[in-house]
């Protein structure tokens, strides 16, 4: 292929891509661009299509492969790097709240008095006394004229009653008693094992083990156990703690801390990675014993509708995978290192579709899968004088997504083509800078556009019978005698339809073209969702006349690209985006 032929082929490919993105999704032809432009482009389009069909197919296949989230030789989705970074042990969030800065004063009602604590005692009446009494090593406070009173192990709530009882044994009458736990003796506790910063940390006896673990910067996420934590005193285990019980049930009971206690975090037990249709991906730790799927489903926050579980891992040295119904999975033994992907893999036998516009009866219908548009409409009652049944259309989510993808691709190409180009002179550079600012603003506004996903199913008063999809919104438009004039006119408004009146007459009645109007690009949007050039179709009641803005640039390539994008937006939204 010589250089001239190659150049023509490349031009043809770019032309094909630009025109295809400008076409509305309801059309498979060039019928929605002006006739003059269509006649000029059609020969080049056909030639480019024949020369490039094979290469386009290869490119499409390559792009589809690059966009997939699966890899050859694997089962199930492959996590992105961001998802891998977010994959944390279940329970790791306990140490992200920062309760390191919160200190307990130990004066809660359940606090039990220990040697070294300070108690304020006031007596008045037949005997006067106002002192701060320490709790001695035997657990007593010594009250003059009364003697020692055992208070070690007494709760803060019980302290006042115990002291009053002891005083009234000596002074039964005319003595009033007041007690208050003024301060508690701090304790130093060792936190060790698989924590991020093992060490000796100071707290108060009533502190929770969680406070001390947070002081040690939390449990090591790769090695530490959230389910096997022990509190040790004098070489003996006095409490075994499971943080899953705290997370799932709010239960975390352990004895009051004493000076010299040790909080020890054991090595993490068998771990299962949970992905798929769950509230959040996590690594779940299972305690020793039979590792059954039922135990995992009790902890993992499954989303509604989950029906299957995909297991992959190893059994010995051999790779293992299994795809089970949820009931089977619960009775299946798991192994350390397994990855479980929960999936909602039930195929619904029915569809839910919605009606909007002018109709009689209910708005939602549940129909069997495979129901066609005609079959549904046979069940819908309408008033022929109120409903323009010949102009029915469908709003479909998948169509809106394709429209959005096409628009985003066109905008990306516009930015790449223009904003990345260089300038040869200072004057050209200044002009391009001003145009670049306008184009950037236009791209920002255009990216905010939300296509309506309108699927045209009516043509010349007849409805194409198509299969319905779940979530379809079927529009039965209200019969009207008005014409809506919008876009680049001075007074956008609705006007009464008059047979024989031309498009220009309605535009004049709306104040005429604005200074930004492109009088060569006027569209007619029908009630059935079809969008056509104003010079190609006669007006009908219910039509919308849409005047597009003029692209103010001397760069013909940019003007052509922006004009095509404006066509896309007008087709997808029935709105003329202002430049």
Automatic annotation (TrEMBL):
<keyword id="KW-0762">Sugar transport</keyword>
<dbReference type="InterPro" id="IPR019554">
    <property type="entry name" value="Soluble_ligand-bd"/>
</dbReference>
<comment type="similarity">
    <text>Belongs to the BexD/CtrA/VexA family.</text>
</comment>
<feature type="domain" description="Polysaccharide export protein N-terminal">
    <location>
        <begin position="108"/>
        <end position="180"/>
    </location>
</feature>
<dbReference type="Pfam" id="PF10531">
    <property type="entry name" value="SLBB"/>
</dbReference>
<keyword id="KW-0732">Signal</keyword>
<feature type="domain" description="Soluble ligand binding">
    <location>
        <begin position="485"/>
        <end position="531"/>
    </location>
</feature>
<keyword id="KW-1134">Transmembrane beta strand</keyword>
<keyword id="KW-0406">Ion transport</keyword>
<dbReference type="InterPro" id="IPR049712">
    <property type="entry name" value="Poly_export"/>
</dbReference>
<feature type="compositionally biased region" description="Low complexity">
    <location>
        <begin position="46"/>
        <end position="66"/>
    </location>
</feature>
<dbReference type="InterPro" id="IPR054765">
    <property type="entry name" value="SLBB_dom"/>
</dbReference>
<feature type="domain" description="SLBB">
    <location>
        <begin position="189"/>
        <end position="265"/>
    </location>
</feature>
<keyword id="KW-0472">Membrane</keyword>
<keyword id="KW-0564">Palmitate</keyword>
<feature type="region of interest" description="Disordered">
    <location>
        <begin position="46"/>
        <end position="76"/>
    </location>
</feature>
<dbReference type="Pfam" id="PF22461">
    <property type="entry name" value="SLBB_2"/>
</dbReference>
<protein>
    <submittedName>
        <fullName>Polysaccharide export protein</fullName>
    </submittedName>
</protein>
<keyword id="KW-0449">Lipoprotein</keyword>
<keyword id="KW-0626">Porin</keyword>
<keyword id="KW-0812">Transmembrane</keyword>
<dbReference type="Pfam" id="PF02563">
    <property type="entry name" value="Poly_export"/>
</dbReference>
<keyword id="KW-0625">Polysaccharide transport</keyword>
<dbReference type="InterPro" id="IPR003715">
    <property type="entry name" value="Poly_export_N"/>
</dbReference>
<keyword id="KW-0998">Cell outer membrane</keyword>
<keyword id="KW-0813">Transport</keyword>
<feature type="signal peptide">
    <location>
        <begin position="1"/>
        <end position="27"/>
    </location>
</feature>
